[in-house]
Design brief:
Distance between the termini: 51 Å
Largest sheet: none
Structural class: mainly alpha
Shape: flat
Radius of gyration: 21 Å
Number of domains: 2
Oligomer: single chain
Number of helices: 5
């Protein structure tokens, strides 16, 4: 059985497009955008966001099941090592960038006020 779902990127592209088009419609007050037919989907902004959550849940679960089937005894350690190595660096980078661009006053305060 093939565990790769090659067309999942098409769903991701649709979800991203739906979110971007929704924001363009809302922020530019694009009144002439169709309100009926298949393009109505783009006026419903939560569809793209929900689709991202569904895709993420599917991909993470599929990956975890494949890893468990490969080596069930080492699953927990391997799974959490992989997940944390993907998530933690991005959180640290995002937090650092936020402090650089938006939280400059945060560094001028004593550590007591951070908490």
């Amino acid at each position: 059985m093939n565990d790769r779902f090659e067309n999942i990127n098409l769903l991701r592209a649709f979800a991203a497009t739906a979110v971007v088009v929704y924001h363009v419609i809302e922020f530019t007050h694009w009144k002439s955008f169709p309100i009926t037919g298949p393009l109505l989907t783009f006026r419903i902004g939560w569809i793209g966001v929900d689709l991202f959550f569904v895709i993420s849940g599917f991909v993470i679960t599929s990956s975890a099941l494949a890893l468990y089937r490969k080596d069930g005894s080492e699953f927990h350690r391997t799974y959490w090592t992989r997940r944390l190595s993907r998530i933690v660096p991005l959180y640290v980078l995002t937090g650092a960038l936020w402090i650089v661009f938006f939280g400059q006053d945060l560094l001028d305060q004593p550590v007591r006020k951070w908490v």
